[in-house]
Every structure is written in structure tokens, then in C-alpha cells.
Amino acid sequence: MENLFKEIPESLIAQYVEVRDGETFVIKFGGELFEKEEKLDRFIQSIIFLVKHKINVILVHGS
Q1: From CA 3, how far away is CA 27, in angstroms rounded?
Q2: Which of 9, 17, 33, 53 sits between 20 and 30 A of 26, alpha carbons compared?
Q3: Phi/psi at 60 (nearest 5 deg)?
Q4: How many alpha carbons fall within 13 Å on the CB side of residue 62?
Q5: In 10 A of CB 2, how many CB atoms?
């Protein structure tokens, strides 16, 4: 699965995320995310990755 942290192996990210099991991440994003489909796809895949690893996600749009 592709994620926003391309240069970091997913296995390392998964280890970090396991420690955060059940916590809530607040993620702020702007409208520029919707300018390119590939950016939006990577963002969505990263959110899915967090949710699959039992991280609660709150999305905040705008500044």
C-alpha cells in the first residue's frame, strides 16, 4: 500500500503506529490536496492505513 512516507518502509511505520493503537490523530489539510489526483490518492491511502491500524482520525480542512 502506498503512503505519504514513501522513503520509510511500511514495516517501520506499522511498528510506530502499533504503539499508537487507539489514539487519535488530527490531520489538517488544505484545498491544494485536491489539485492533483495522485496527491489525493496518497492522502486517502494513508488515512486508510491509519484506520486499519486502529488509529482514530479527525480531518480538518482549511487554515
Answers
A1: 15
A2: 9
A3: -120, 120
A4: 0
A5: 13
